[in-house]
């Protein structure tokens, strides 16, 4: 007789792993062949509705779940795609994933996000493990990987489009500063000649590129810079920078590295008694929700993250389809989603910018 501490014998023992039902057991319960069950699971419309209902009842009664690994080994179709990201969070990544999921859903794929961390070697190894696991039909890496080998017979493509570094900071296309040139050029056309730049945190590639584009454009257009103030995304630093400006600085336009710094600059201008934009034009970056509703509404740069996600996912699906067709060339057949005339970022002109004043603010 078993002691009270011994687990009970028999099938009711919760410590005994429950065996997964098989497709043949489903077939026996439904009174059909296992091939018919397989056709039903694949969505074959030649299985009549009554038979499909009987099979579905058997599936639910047995709590049957297809073995995705076995299915993947047989036909390389799992209906799953993976997106690799470094650990951390960024609003832009949520928007990119939203756009990517929209396209994946339309293609009847499940999109899974996998975080990859550690050293570059560890990230590479994890990416290869996912590619070779046969659990996914395509893998999209949005973080930097080494120049990993892509075997000629690889059915699962690993597409790398680095948008984030290991600390989830924007790089590559997300660190573009091109619109800064457009902003300064247009303000120069409105009569502005002396500018100030409120820079962000230089640990972010975008902050460095915006500073560099500012300096490059000022020189190119033969304008004047009153300097670069390193604010590090700190609104208080940006506000102080404006409050502490000499009364005779001659500055009529401030180019801020993001909307937080730009909004703080407006606050500093109000404290000085300067009207925006009548006496001082101010621009930001990111097109945050606050930028559109603040007073005055902020001229800024909108980055189309969701559309970028859609384009990246279409690109991945193009590569997946090419591999499935057995293309002779194992390289990606589709052009980069950023190689056409589409603009990832655009300037949104609002109330915080206007013509240069006849006399610069001197209060």
From TrEMBL:
Location of the HTH cro/C1-type domain: 22-65
Keywords recorded for this protein, A-Z: DNA-binding, Repressor, Transcription, Transcription regulation
Domain of life: Bacteria
InterPro entries noted in UniProt: Cro/C1-type_HTH, HTH_LacI, LacI/GalR-like_sensor, Lambda_DNA-bd_dom_sf, Peripla_BP_I
One Gene Ontology term of the molecular function aspect: DNA binding
Span of domain HTH lacI-type: 21-75
Protein name per its UniProtKB record: LacI family DNA-binding transcriptional regulator
UniProt lineage: Bacteria, Bacillati, Actinomycetota, Actinomycetes, Micrococcales
């Amino acid at each position: 007789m078993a002691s009270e501490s011994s687990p009970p014998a028999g099938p009711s023992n919760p410590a005994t792993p429950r065996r997964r039902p098989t497709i043949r057991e489903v077939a026996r319960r439904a009174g059909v062949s296992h091939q018919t069950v397989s056709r039903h699971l694949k969505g074959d419309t030649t299985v009549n509705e009554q038979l499909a209902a009987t099979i579905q009842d058997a599936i639910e009664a047995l709590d049957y779940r297809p073995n995705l690994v076995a299915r993947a080994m047989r036909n390389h179709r799992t209906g799953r795609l993976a997106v690799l990201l470094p650990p951390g969070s960024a609003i832009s990544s949520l928007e990119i994933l939203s756009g990517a999921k929209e396209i994946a859903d339309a293609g009847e794929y499940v999109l899974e996000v996998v975080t990859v961390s550690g050293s570059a070697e560890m990230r590479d190894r994890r990416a290869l493990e996912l590619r070779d696991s046969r659990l996914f039909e395509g893998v999209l890496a949005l973080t930097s990987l080494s120049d990993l080998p892509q075997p000629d017979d690889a059915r699962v493509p690993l597409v790398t489009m680095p948008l984030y570094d290991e600390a989830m900071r924007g790089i590559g296309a997300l660190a573009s500063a091109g619109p800064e040139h457009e902003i300064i050029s247009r303000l120069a056309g409105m009569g502005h000649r002396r500018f100030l730049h409120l820079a962000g945190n230089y640990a972010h590639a975008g902050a460095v590129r915006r500073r560099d584009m500012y300096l490059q454009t000022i020189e190119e257009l033969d304008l004047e810079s009153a300097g670069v103030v390193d604010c590090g995304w700190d609104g208080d630093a940006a506000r102080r920078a404006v409050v502490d400006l000499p009364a005779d600085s001659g500055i009529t336009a401030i180019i801020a590295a993001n909307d937080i710094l730009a909004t703080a600059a407006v606050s500093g201008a109000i404290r000085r008694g300067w009207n925006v934009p009548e006496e001082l034009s101010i621009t930001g970056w990111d097109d945050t929700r606050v930028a559109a509703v603040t007073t005055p509404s902020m001229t800024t740069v909108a980055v189309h993250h969701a559309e970028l996600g859609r384009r990246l996912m279409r690109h991945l699906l193009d590569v997946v389809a090419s591999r499935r067709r057995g293309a002779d060339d194992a390289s990606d057949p589709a052009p980069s989603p950023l190689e056409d005339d589409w603009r990832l970022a655009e300037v949104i002109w609002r109330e915080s910018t206007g013509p240069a004043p006849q006399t610069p603010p001197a209060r």
